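Before a colleague's protein record goes any further, I have to sign it off. What it holds is a sequence and that sequence's fold in token form. Would you go through it and say whether the fold makes sense for this chain? The record follows directly below this note.
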Amino acid sequence: MNLDQLLSYFEATQPINPTEIIAQAALLYILAKALSLLYIYTGNSLSNRSRLATIFPLMALTTMLIISVVKSSLALSLGLVGALSIVRFRAAIKDPEELAFIFLSISLGLGFGADQVVLTTVFFVAIAAILLARLLFRGRLGRRFTEADSAHLELIFEKQQQLPKINEILDQHCQEVKLTRLDQNEHQAMRFLVKPKSVESLDRLQQEFLSLDADVQLTVLQYQPLI
């Protein structure tokens, strides 16, 4: 191998078509936005999923830009390896689900940057179908927190109450009832995981508990993770 052949490996050999790049970037943005929606509606992470999902399109497009530039030159590729070797990320990702979606976003950018548009799109559609099928199986498609979803119900009575009586009232107005905590101190505190039948059911619950104890404190909190 002579010097000219060696130098040719370090020179850009693949011209970049601006029209093709723009079209691929537009399609990539659509897929990345779809990935954001998938993460918001199918994810189980306790973190704020909407906030993390906003970076997926930017991450995918940035990855595509990097790969589109360095793939045409060995010198640029080696330079990228050297640059990344000195980068240190301080924010640890502790949730495996977040890491999986971040890798999927990067994979979209890698695939489009390497001109593997069809293969990348097919795999993304397959992964999205799996996530949606899992969501349908759980019966949660398209649902956020509604009156029929689980909620934390906290009751604090000034007067001592019988737990069977409280359960009887809850069973009349809730589809599911599960006692999660019972405290007997100066006041009697009870916590339940409930699934109210409707918003009106919560109002009727409050009226019945007030009839038992006029000083009762009732608190209802959303059980679904923040999105």
Q: What stands out?
A: Confidence is low (pLDDT under 50) at residues 141-148. The chain has two domains: 7-138, 151-222.
